[in-house]
Design goal:
4-stranded mixed sheet; Glutathione-S-Trfase_C_sf; Thiol:disulfide oxidoreductase; GST_C; Thioredoxin-like_sf; 9 helices; Glutaredoxin; Glutathione S-transferase Yfyf (Class Pi), Chain A, domain 2
Length: 232
């Protein structure tokens, strides 16, 4: 059994995508990031960066004590190793998967997250910041679209954790992008959306948060006003 500390965000969806694909037994422990549950002492013991998702594996493959893992990319790598699935079957395949997973973790996620922030949540519109992250989002969409021009999935012929990491972040309308300009992404996105495990994963999110409300000022303070003293 795996405990998944989760909220239905792009990073949270990555893990339910994997777990639903593999059928690993898990239970969701909601972490409402808008009300500050990510700062509770028990959660910080397993996720010291006060971010979800995080997991606790009560049946690790070495048969020893439960193990906790935080950071969505690290969780995907851990689960791929644990199950022997979706991480690449050969050294070369794993290299492809890992470099595109790192691309998502270091580029696609952070840059698109800043796009969301300055377009949708910042208290004042800063044209330079909006244009900076809008353009970087467009560049990254272009990188992904070119990558998918001659292969069905990010790392090649097989669906892997590299796809699971990137898929939840492709939100064209929220990111000021026109998906018709990226036909390879559109084809890839449609294929992943149609997978039964994807449907189940996103249904889990709707169970936790059926209809997301507009972000309150208090939630913005919780999410965007953190310092080293937050949670102490």
């Amino acid at each position: 059994m795996i405990d998944l500390h989760y909220w239905p965000t792009p990073n949270g969806h990555k893990i339910t995508l994997f777990l639903e694909e593999t059928g690993v037994s898990y239970r969701i422990i909601p972490v409402n990031i808008g009300t500050g549950e990510q700062f509770k002492p028990d959660f910080l013991k397993i996720a010291p960066n006060n971010r979800m998702p995080a997991i606790v594996d009560h049946e690790p493959s070495d048969g020893s004590a439960p193990i906790s893992v935080f950071e969505s990319g690290a969780i995907l790598l851990y689960l791929a190793e644990k199950t022997g699935r979706f991480g690449g079957d050969t050294m070369r395949a794993r290299a492809e998967v890992n470099q595109w997973l790192m691309w998502q973790m270091g580029g696609l996620g952070p840059m698109l997250g800043q796009n969301h922030h300055f377009r949708n949540y910042a208290p004042e519109k800063v044209p330079y910041a909006i244009n900076r992250y809008l353009n970087e989002t467009n560049r990254l969409y272009g990188v992904l679209d070119r990558r998918l021009a001659d292969r069905p999935f990010v790392a090649g012929d097989d669906y892997t954790i590299a796809d699971m990491a990137s898929y939840p972040w492709i939100l064209p309308e929220a990111q000021g992008q026109d998906l018709s300009e990226f036909p390879n992404i559109a084809r890839w996105h449609t294929a992943i959306k149609a997978r039964p495990a994807t449907e189940r994963a996103y249904a889990k999110g709707k169970e936790i948060q059926p209809a997301p409300a507009p972000m309150s000022d208090e939630a913005k303070k919780v999410l965007f006003g953190q310092t080293a003293n937050t949670g102490r």
